[in-house]
Design brief:
Length: 458
Amino acid sequence: MAAPIEILTAPLPAETDPGDIDAYLADGGYGAVRKALKSMSQTELIEEINASGIKGRGGAGFSTGMKWNLCADRFPRYLCANADESEPGSFKDRLLLESKPHQIIEGMIITSYALGINLGYIYIRGEFFQIIDQMEAALEDARKHGFLGADILDTGYDLELYVHPGAGAYICGEETGLIESLEGNRPYPRLKPPYFPAAIGLWGQPTIVNNVETMAQITTIVDMGAEAYKQIGSEEDTTGPRLFGLCGHVNKPGIYEYDSDVTLRELIYDAAGGIRDGNRLKGVIPGGISAPILTPEEIDTPMGFGALGKLGSMGGTGGIIVMDETTSMVDALLNASSFAAHESCGQCTPCREGVPWMNDILRRIRNGQGRDEDLDLLLDVCKQIHGHTVCVFGQAPGVWPVRTILVKYWPEFRACIERKELVVLPLEESYLRPDQYEHIPPVPGNFRLKTDEADAAG
């Protein structure tokens, strides 16, 4: 069994306020900032992050070092820490914001120094009212102690960081939507190219957008060094510790810290104590509601971004949603689809019209009014949305859950249509086995049924 890690989740001394900067300093806090600003050049810092192999922890698993390297050679540059955690099933960022605000700030200072940035923002989900106040207080304490403002630690380096509360829109988690919101505009994601805000971002300038867990990990890398950091996890896949939030039908839901070599099975049955009430597993979403679902036969996979990608899923936000054999997969998909339909920003016609349309079809099936052609219609709408939107929203929470849950649990959807009522099939009958469907990596959710007719057609 994989052993748990306590790096990002290292406990604080008893009765310590997480926002208390004096307690953080006494525990070695801001040591990474001193090391970076006092004894490392900007080039050395960037090389250290590249050497660590860290991948972003916000969803896509893109190389953080590569993102930094893409930063256009223009100034001023800006930094945005993405704390707009709105993905259903995800709550790791909230834990970090509540328990390690200064570690996040420290990572932002290091990132800003490395890239010559003098102004940054922490974009926090609007519903996190208490966290917004706590983070503003933590930033003020950092200023008073000389870690923000002018001439930080007598190095001549200047930096200001500010909190920007969101207004509850899920689309602001998309980095260009976040930037539009920061600029005071409607948060419509931007057309691509340019593909990265590192080229053209906030106010038309190079901008780095990193998840808050990524920011906290930057502090860890500078503290322990890139060589030690990449010994955690898999150098070929995903290095460093990861936070996994387990929820749903498990006995011990919560946040668990492991390296990426831990398997989904170990997280569910060892870390989270197994399935509630002694029930059996029916399905698990491994990375927030956008991540394609996995069946019981697919949970022996390591949790690295690459390993999950080979199964047609993704690590996403690390939010693991566990569903037992009592779950109606029609209801589960309807819930996911309802969220996507509600949160579509409305910019792109395929997403604006297609996602609510799929939601209406699923609701009809759930209410016993499904038609024989509905399942094929759902897959056809998915095809029309996929790749035809400005951002990945239409595909991630919109299409991928529909494609994967529908195809893998096809028998249960067929039963609901045939019986004209909501049906929860016995576990063995409810889903297809891996040899009955195939996927085409690296695009998650690119499924088709394997039938005799399809195979005969080649």
